[in-house]
Amino acid sequence: MKKLSIFMLSMFASLTYANQVESSINSNHKNTQLVQMTDEELSATQGQALYSLTRTDNSSQGLSFYRLGMEAEIAINANIKKLQLGCGGVNGPGNCDIDIDNLSLTGLNPVNGEYAASDAILKNPFIEFAINNPDKASTRETVGLRVGALEALGLLSIGTNSNTSDPSDDTGINSLSGNLTLNLKNTQMTNIRACGGALVLGACLGLWLYGSATVRDTQKTLVFNRDSQIDDLGPLTADATILGLTLNNVHLKNQTLKAIHQIALKSADGTGTKDFYLGLQKQSVTWPTTATSGWNAVPAQRGWWLALPEVTIENAKATQQVSLSGVGAIFGAIFGTQVDVQGIDLAQVPAKNCYGSLKFC
User: For this UniProt entry, which residues form the secretion signal (predicted)?
Assistant: First the structure.
């Protein structure tokens, strides 16, 4: 009898628990049912999707732009031994739109002494198409494609530089097509000489004066079309220790792009580079901006195009002897005559993006 009572109590407890669980399940099920919303309620609802799709029209170009964007941040660390884009074809044998050796993308600063442990940050990456006649199925045509990001914060390391006083041994950018708005910060020439008189057939009719110079921080926009050098970077202003003069019309001439080994993907204020992209175009295309509602100042040309609307090169230091030419550098400073500086080694060394003793990985 006692065993039967215990059995009956156990059955009653089990049934009671089962009823409670079923009631709870039914209650939760009712709470998770979809509720119909009015148009006004939907309009007042806020949220954020992972992906967004936008269309932007430009009647002056006759193009429409379709962008698929990701509302996210991507952390990336990458090495590319050889980057060649747009080689041959209409460019001719051996000619490339972009040709770069030993390209690395890392964070701005090393982590525990290792760039290999750091990441560049791409904010809101996207892919975008430029479409001609988008609303006419018979003549619709894709004339451009690009990938990019609303903002990129990181460090591009390029090439090799075993001797920081000799530009002839530098490797890196062999050919470049694109536009860069370049912030030059804390650029120094530590070993310069200037003629105290006039230069005649390379001979100084006067005394050679020696010293150093600091180039004032400046911003320059450069446009390349399968170029390997900067023909003329100027005018620049440099404060020289020679007689305390200020050189107001300095031009860096025939500067090889191979001497550039570090490009910081950041603006002058330290935030990430806005509107960075790599594009492929059938024709000249002016792409819309992503950071603001507008259009890029520099149109992308046919072929592959790298756009870095604002980047920074800082702490470049020329240690080899630099002779300032012109109508005598001293007279040039006084009268504003152009003072030319021929291509130099910027004494930059690419960041080591490998663990251990590997030189490139």
Answer: 1-18
Do the Cβ atoms of 309 and 300 come closer than 8 Å?
A: no
Q: What is the pLDDT of residues 233-291, one digit of tens each?
A: 989 998 888 878 888 888 899 999 999 999 999 998 999 999 999 999 999 999 999 98
pTM: 0.82
3-state secondary structure 292-350: CCCECCCCECCEEEEEEEEEEEECCEECCCEEECCCCHHHHHHHCCCEEEECCCCCCCC
Residue range 186-230, pLDDT digits in tens:
999 888 887 776 667 667 777 888 889 999 999 999 999 999 999
How far apart (Å, rounded) are the C-alpha atoms in residues 17 and 23? 10
Instruction: Classify residue 300 by burial, with Cβ atoms within 10 Å: 0-12, 13-18, 19+.
Output: buried
